[in-house]
Amino acid sequence: xxxxxxxxxxxxxxxxxxxxxxxxxxxxxxxxxxxxxSSGQVxxxxxxxxxxxxxxxxxxxxxxxxxxxxxxxxxxxxxEVKNNQDRIRAEDAAAVKDGVMKVVNQLKTxxxxxxxxxxxxxxxxxxxxxxxxxxxxxxxxDPTRVKITVANGEVFLMGLVTRDEADAVVERxxxxxxxxxxxxxxxxxx
Length: 190
Description:
Layout: H1 2-15, E1 19-22, E2 25-28, H2 29-34, H3 39-59, E3 65-71, E4 74-81, H4 84-95, E5 102-109, H5 116-132, E6 147-151, E7 154-158, E8 160-161, H6 163-174, E9 181-184, E10 187-188
Parallel strand pairs: 4-5, 7-9, 8-10
Antiparallel strand pairs: 1-2, 3-4, 6-7
Helix pairs in contact: 1-3, 3-4
Signal peptide: 1-18
Protein name: BON domain-containing protein
InterPro entries: BON_dom, Lipoprotein_DolP
């Protein structure tokens, strides 16, 4: 448990977000203030993500590019692996962790994992996508509630949103240069 808390603290410091103490647990202030999840669920999701990443490092060959994100116990795996066995190992590593409700495995099997140029493009797409959400004019919509993960020009969207919010987010992002596909992994609110 000490290792997990240490990892979380390091991750929070590296993200540049101020951390707050909520109910004896460290949670980023931005997440708690704007998120539709409870502070406990935000923390649980961060712990699940760190735990899954750690387990995948043990189970999958190092020549892979796997992005892990968690929202309300749903784990998203996106990126590239060298073979189907590693794809299955990564999913199994995520599925057995406490608190995981579902695994969405979007890993692609490739002969060669993408290089730095592709990764830079993905980071650029992610920043443009986040910025584009600021233009959505729907009452009570908060762009910080949408998690965006980009791998090989594919944009994966997570969060607790209304159907109108989801449609508006997809419409904004799908037209951005470099976006090949948009995948909704949303949970819908009322």
